[in-house]
Write a structure and sequence with these properties.
single chain
C-alpha cells in the first residue's frame, strides 16, 4: 500500500487485535509519510464529560463557565497512548480554520492548539466536536507492516460516523460501512461446535 493511500483515512482494528490500546478501536489517520504516521483513536476508553475535563484542565478561569451546549456533556476519551496529557479537538471543518488545524480530508479538522480550545470555549468555531486525550503514532514503515500483518483495515473518512455516533457503536458501524458486514463475521470459528 502506498503512503499516499492511507491518510487521510480511518484504520479499523482487526477483530483479532489483542492490543489493549487498540482493541475494537477506530483511528482517524491524519498524517502518514516517510517520517511515520499520526492519528487519533476516535472511540477510545471513555473519560469524563468534555466540559468537566476542560474545567479540570484549568483552561477556564474561576469566573468562567463551560458554555451551555450538549456537546460539552459528551464524553471525552483516550485518543491514543502517545502524549496522554495532550488534548485534541476533532470536529467538522468550517470556512474559517481553527488555529493549528490539521485537515483530515475535506470535512474533518483536528487541532491541539490552546487557541483552538479557547475559540470553542468562547462560543466560536465548531458546535460539534470530540475531545480526545493523547494520540497514536507509528515509526516509519511500522504502520505498513501492521496492515500487511492484518492488524488494521484501512477505510475512508466518514465525518458522520466519527462525530454523530455513540462511542460504543463506532467500530461496528465502521466495519459495516466499509465492508457491508459486522466485525464478528471476520473471526475464526474453527474448532467450535
Amino acid at each position: 500500500m502506498r503512503r499516499s493511500d492511507l491518510a487521510p483515512g480511518l484504520l479499523l482494528a482487526a477483530p483479532s487485535l489483542q492490543d489493549p490500546n487498540f482493541e475494537r478501536r477506530v483511528v482517524l489517520l491524519g498524517k502518514h509519510g516517510a517520517d511515520g504516521a499520526l492519528g487519533w483513536v476516535i472511540n477510545g476508553r471513555e473519560l469524563m464529560p468534555a466540559g468537566e475535563l476542560l474545567l479540570a484542565s484549568e483552561l477556564l478561569s474561576e469566573v468562567e463557565s463551560v458554555p451551555e451546549s450538549p456537546v460539552f456533556s459528551r464524553l471525552a476519551c483516550v485518543g491514543g497512548p502517545v502524549a496522554p496529557a495532550a488534548g485534541w479537538l476533532v470536529y467538522r471543518r468550517q470556512a474559517a480554520a481553527l488555529p493549528g488545524e490539521i485537515a483530515v480530508g475535506p470535512d474533518i479538522g483536528v487541532s491541539g492548539e490552546l487557541a483552538a480550545f479557547s475559540t470553542v470555549l468562547g462560543g466560536g468555531g465548531p458546535t460539534l466536536f470530540r475531545l480526545l486525550l493523547g494520540c497514536a503514532g507509528w515509526a516509519p514503515g511500522q504502520l505498513e507492516s501492521e496492515i500487511s500483518a492484518g492488524a488494521w483495515l484501512p477505510a475512508s473518512v466518514d465525518a458522520d460516523l466519527i462525530l454523530n455516533n455513540q462511542l460504543d457503536g463506532i467500530w461496528d458501524g465502521a466495519y459495516h460501512r466499509s465492508v457491508g458486514a459486522d466485525p464478528a463475521n471476520f473471526t475464526s470459528r474453527r474448532g467450535q461446535a
